[in-house]
């Protein structure tokens, strides 16, 4: 039918219709019964991009490009007088298409049916809809990507939306998550909380909060702890609903609890740590002063616990510490406190305890520790030592009380371990000595980089003719506050703290540098340097000696290292290897203070030792003291038998020198020859002119 009809010529009524539709805002066509445009207004021309007159006579199917358009106009044919609406695409002159809303209204036309077609541009509407869809998609993606469960409700309490995190957190059944019903959803949530009544009261408070933001926490029946934040949803400044966010904070709460536990308990044993002990001790002392309720502190140290770790490993050692904590806890009353301060150090705080109560507790602890420990089939014993301190009236602080208990503990360990001891006033002198040693150690560590140490040299001479054969390097120290500090005072402290290694390295470098200068001046002498056992045992000691010799440009034969007897019996095989390596460098080796320690004749025979040095304590009584004379004679004879040189130190009189010479000793050093001197004084005393390179003369003996 559409193809069979032909276009009719315009009539005056068409002009009238064109005039009528031209004033309309929407694009309008007047279409004849054959679906050709009879009239079009200006808006229709602008919509298609051509003057309205160019549309006249064109078939509607040339202008509308949807495949469904042919069916649509067939439906118009069949619809008679009905007004039809549809959306379609309009082809513009530039080839683009435009979405439009099409409304077709049948009108009478010369006894036949024509059509008034109104077209409305949907481009802006589509743009807004697309933009809205994009924003909704972004919002949905945002809601689903957040770690929080989100629930949105309107002012009437109806559910607007929620995300999948919310569904998982509240464990919604699949059917409820797919088709949420407001009442069923809220009832499900109420069933999941651990305290439904408190939960409902809180909801009522949220309703009363209005536009205010709120936050709270609650628990679910499965143990989950939930943090809930509620914010008003506003539109143009007016509330339209409320947004709830739900966050699972169970792990955060547990972590906080663990952190709090670690802050107040020992991580391994579970007993109190130092912080808790100090707080409890502060309270106990305050109560003791206020209510005259005494307390006591027991400092406990496991005897030789290092042997457990070294023998069985730290894993078993840790399990022993856990059982020790349990035994200590079981030995106390409920009002008392067990604390672990570190490693195998435990402290007990006894409340309302006098000396008798403290002694009873100490005996219970010793009894509990006497039972053998059984771990992984291993059975062994670990004893403990206990120091006890009672507070002094109105003077003690927690630190003071712990310090005095610690001093008493050290006295127990020094006297054999395995028992207890109360702190006594006389023990404070030991504490003062300990503080003095700490201060001295600190001063030493400052002195080395400040250059406060210096070396003096004491001549070592032939006992027969007084020829200079060598010099012993001896360290000296003058402190700005302490004054001249004797080596007998600071060397033991350095050995105990380990700082002797740094001091020994400095002495070796300085002594070899001076020995190199003397060697360059033609002086034929050996420089002796003392080596502590700790320094000797350091990895790379031999390599270090070789490096310093090379840097100084000094032959190894010009260096003698003086070692203690105790070093020889420590790990004999490794000691032998190191001594042989030093001997291979040409370095001479001597045993210092021989006779004051323990030496095995077998070691002396095996080790590459070249000289024995008689300690000054045996020289002082010569020649009148028969005991000293007998000891010195035995040492000289031992040296002769082992083909070792013997040198005596501390020789102060001609009688001592003559007696030693008569026994067969080869060398000596001491005030009879000269004290330890600075380099300049040393050169002057032995008669070496400044800058000379001649043979050194015999040393004058001076009183």
Task: Tell me the layout of helices and strands.
Blueprint: H1 12-22, E1 27-31, E2 37-40, H2 42-48, H3 60-63, H4 69-79, E3 84-91, E4 97-109, E5 112-121, H5 123-145, E6 149-154, E7 159-162, H6 164-169, H7 174-178, H8 182-192, H9 196-209, E8 214-219, E9 225-235, E10 238-248, H10 250-264, H11 274-291, E11 295-302, H12 305-312, H13 314-330, E12 337-342, E13 345-351, H14 355-369, E14 373-375, E15 378-380, E16 384-389, H15 398-414, E17 420-422, H16 427-450, E18 453-462, E19 468-479, E20 483-485, H17 487-497, H18 500-520, E21 526-530, H19 533-536, H20 541-552, E22 559-563, H21 565-568, H22 572-584, E23 588-594, H23 601-606, E24 611-614, H24 616-619, H25 626-641, E25 645-649, H26 654-663, E26 667-669, H27 679-686
Parallel strand pairs: 16-17, 19-21, 21-22, 22-23, 23-24, 24-25, 25-26
Antiparallel strand pairs: 1-2, 1-5, 3-4, 4-5, 6-7, 6-10, 8-9, 9-10, 11-13, 11-16, 12-13, 14-15, 18-19, 18-26, 19-20
Structural class: alpha+beta
Strand content: 15-25%
CATH class of the largest domain: Alpha Beta
Strand order of the largest sheet: 18-19-21-22-23-24-25-26
What is the annotated CATH architecture of the largest domain?
Alpha-Beta Barrel
The number of distinct helices, counting runs of at least 4 residues, comes to 27
Rg (CA only): 52 Å
| SS elements, strand count | 26
Q: Looking at the structure, what is the overall shape?
A: elongated
The major beta sheet can be summarized as: 8 strands, mixed, barrel
State the end-to-end CA separation.
151 Å
Might you state the CATH topology name of the largest domain?
TIM Barrel
């Amino acid at each position: 039918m559409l193809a069979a009809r032909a276009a009719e010529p315009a009539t005056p009524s068409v002009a009238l219709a064109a005039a009528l539709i031209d004033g309309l805002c929407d694009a309008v066509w007047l279409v004849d019964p054959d679906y050709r445009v009879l009239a079009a207004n200006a808006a229709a021309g602008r919509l298609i991009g051509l003057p309205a007159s160019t549309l006249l006579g064109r078939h509607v199917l040339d202008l509308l490009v949807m495949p469904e358009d042919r069916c649509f106009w067939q439906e118009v044919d069949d619809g008679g007088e009905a007004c039809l609406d549809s959306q379609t695409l309009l082809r513009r002159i530039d080839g683009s298409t435009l979405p439009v809303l099409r409304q077709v209204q049948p009108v009478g036309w010369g006894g036949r049916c024509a059509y008034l077609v109104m077209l409305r541009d949907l481009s802006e509407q589509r743009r807004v809809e697309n933009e809205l869809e994009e924003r909704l998609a972004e919002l949905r993606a945002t809601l689903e990507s957040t770690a929080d469960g989100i629930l949105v409700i309107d002012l009437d309490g109806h559910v607007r939306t929620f995300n999948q995190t919310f569904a998982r957190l509240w464990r919604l059944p699949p059917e409820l998550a797919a088709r949420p019903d407001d009442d069923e959803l809220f009832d499900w949530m109420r069933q999941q909380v651990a305290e439904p009544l408190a939960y409902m009261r809180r909801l009522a408070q949220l309703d009363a909060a209005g536009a205010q933001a709120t936050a709270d926490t609650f628990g679910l029946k499965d143990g989950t702890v939930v943090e809930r934040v509620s914010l008003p949803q506003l539109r143009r400044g007016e509330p339209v609903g409320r947004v709830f966010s739900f966050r699972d904070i169970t792990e955060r709460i547990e972590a906080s609890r663990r952190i709090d536990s670690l802050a107040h308990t020992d991580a391994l044993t579970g007993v109190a740590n130092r912080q808790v002990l100090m707080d409890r001790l502060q309270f106990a002392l305050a109560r003791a002063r206020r209510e005259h309720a005494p307390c006591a502190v027991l400092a406990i140290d496991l005897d030789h616990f290092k042997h457990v770790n070294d023998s069985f490993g730290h894993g078993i050692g840790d399990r022993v510490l856990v059982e020790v904590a349990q035994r200590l806890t079981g030995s106390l009353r409920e009002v008392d406190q067990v604390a672990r301060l570190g490693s195998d150090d435990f402290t007990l705080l006894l409340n309302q305890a006098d000396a008798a109560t403290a002694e009873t507790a100490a005996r219970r602890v010793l009894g509990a520790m006497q039972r053998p420990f059984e771990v992984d089939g291993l059975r062994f014993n670990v004893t403990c030592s206990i120091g006890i301190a009672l507070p002094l009236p109105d003077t003690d602080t927690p630190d003071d009380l712990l310090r005095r208990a610690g001093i008493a503990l050290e006295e127990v360990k020094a006297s054999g371990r395995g028992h207890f001891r109360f702190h006594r006033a006389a023990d404070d002198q030991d504490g003062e000595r300990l503080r003095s040693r700490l201060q001295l150690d600190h001063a030493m560590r400052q002195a080395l980089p400040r250059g406060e140490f210096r070396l003096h040299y004491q001549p070592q001479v032939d006992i027969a003719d007084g020829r200079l054969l060598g010099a012993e390097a001896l360290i000296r120290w003058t402190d700005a506050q302490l004054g001249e500090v004797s080596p007998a005072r600071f060397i033991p402290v350095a050995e105990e703290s380990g700082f002797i290694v740094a001091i020994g390295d400095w002495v070796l470098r300085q002594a070899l540098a001076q020995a190199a200068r003397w060697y360059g001046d033609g002086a034929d002498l050996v420089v002796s340097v003392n080596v502590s056992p700790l320094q000797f045992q350091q990895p790379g000691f031999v390599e270090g000696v070789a490096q310093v010799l090379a840097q100084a440009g000094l032959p190894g034969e010009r260096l003698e290292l003086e070692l203690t007897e105790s070093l020889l019996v420590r790990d004999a095989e490794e000691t032998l290897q190191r001594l042989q390596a030093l001997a291979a460098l040409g370095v001479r080796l001597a045993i210092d203070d021989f006779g004051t320690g323990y030496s095995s004749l077998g070691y002396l025979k095996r080790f590459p030792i070249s000289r024995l040095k008689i300690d000054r304590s045996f020289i002082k009584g010569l020649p009148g003291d028969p005991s000293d004379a007998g000891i010195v004679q035995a040492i000289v004879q031992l040296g002769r038998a082992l083909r070792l040189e013997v040198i005596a130190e501390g020789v102060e009189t001609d009688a001592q020198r003559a007696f030693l010479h008569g026994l067969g000793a080869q060398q000596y050093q001491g005030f009879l020859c000269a004290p330890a001197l600075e380099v300049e004084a040393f050169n002057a005393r032995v008669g070496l002119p400044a800058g000379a390179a001649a043979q050194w003369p015999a040393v004058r003996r001076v009183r």
